[in-house]
Amino acid sequence: MARAKHKVIRVGIIGQGRSGYSLHAACLARRRNYKVVAVTDPMADCRAQAEREFGADAYEDHREMLQRDDLDLVVNAAPSHLHVPFSLDAFKAGHNVVCEKPLARRVAEVDKLMAAARKAKKLLAIFQQSRFAPYFVQVQKVIASGVLGRIVMVKIAANGFSRRWDWQTLQEYGGGNLLNTGSHLLDQALQLLGPGMPNITCIMDRANTFGDAEDHVKLIMHRKGRPTIDMEISSCCAYPLYSYQVYGTRGGLTGGRGEMKWRYFDPKRAPKQKLTRQPLADRQYCRERLKWTERTWTVPKSKSNMFAYMSKQFYGHLYRTLTEGAPLVITPQQVRRQTAVIEECHRQNRLAKRSR
Q1: Which residues, 6 or more positions from 33, have their beta carbon under 8 angstroms from its beta carbon?
Q2: Cα 166 vs. chain centroid, distance in angstroms?
Q3: What gap in Å lies between CA 59 and CA 11, rounded to an integer?
Q4: pLDDT tens-digit series, residues 200-209
């Protein structure tokens, strides 16, 4: 992997839509060790805005920007179905690449990108910034502390009620809830599940979408000796309840992006019980009073702008990779497993495509 030529990383961004402008360019423009020097976008007003706000050179065609030899990094924030071909173009031109999620829909495409990066001796990084979400980091901390005991199940949800009609509702453009939002949740879920490919059961449906991709997903992942992962991404949930729920043998956790609470008991201080095969006296049911310890976490004010915070963390780690050779926090191999799960979910749910 080639390191950056400059201490201030010179960046070219493909795409100035929601992600390319609002996440990548906005984040990098605030950092002293990055400089957005070029962008591409087919829309003239987006190009003009980048020239005006970032002082960047703007191109209509990404291939023209890729001919530059002064770029330390190319960010591929094009629409999802262009992530693979445009990233391949960037490697062929000799650039390090950060690609937006979803990286690809199929494992074979991920393998092709990894091979292209190796051949070019360049970096392939994937913008799975939700790995740094404050609420997810807190969930990991609570689980790692051991206070909840053995983790039996983790429920993850990104639910709401919405009708959507843009390009991200179309299969041909790599749309649908699983690829759009599921890439974030799956990255987190697979970290909690641990190494290895899980057993997968997935149900997809189309509820409120105006496109032909799914907008309701239920995914169950399990593997021997590991907690069951119950993941849900629905656009027809009028009463969303939580982002995370964790079931443990000594307690549990529940909460959303702004607040988490968990409770647990100490087995050493619990009432002594033993199995009995006889009916309990006076037709009683098994009841006991456990002394619960309860804790609450609220997102710090410094991290309350979640998208800005996650992007800052991602690019902070990436800077050390580009300048010092530090290992990537989020690796292509990890995203390859994520893609394998997505591919299997689509195999189990063959949705008809929209006729033009």
Answers
A1: 7, 8, 9, 319
A2: 21
A3: 14
A4: 999 999 999 9
Helices (H) and strands (E) counted in the chain, each on its own, are 10, 14
Coil, strand, or helix at residue 136?
helix
Q: Nearest-5° angle of CA 86, CA 91, CA 93?
A: 95
Structure tokens at 6: 């400059």
Cα of 164 vs its chain's centroid, Å: 21
CB-CB contact of 72 with 6 (8 Å): yes
Q: Which tokens in the block code for residue 115? A: 């091979």
Q: Please give the model's pTM, rounded to 2 decimal places.
A: 0.92
**Are 11 and 97 contacting, i.e. CB atoms less than 8 angstroms apart?**
no
Measured CA to CA, the distance from residue 233 to residue 271 in angstroms comes to 40
Pair of tokens at residue 127 = 């913008």
d(CA 147, CA 292): 11
Domains and CATH numbers, the chain: 9-127 (3.40.50.720), 132-304+340-348 (3.30.360.10)
Quote the CA–CA distance of 209 and 96 in Å, as a whole number.
36
CA distance 38 to 50: 8
pLDDT tens for each residue of 333-352 = 999 999 999 999 999 998 88
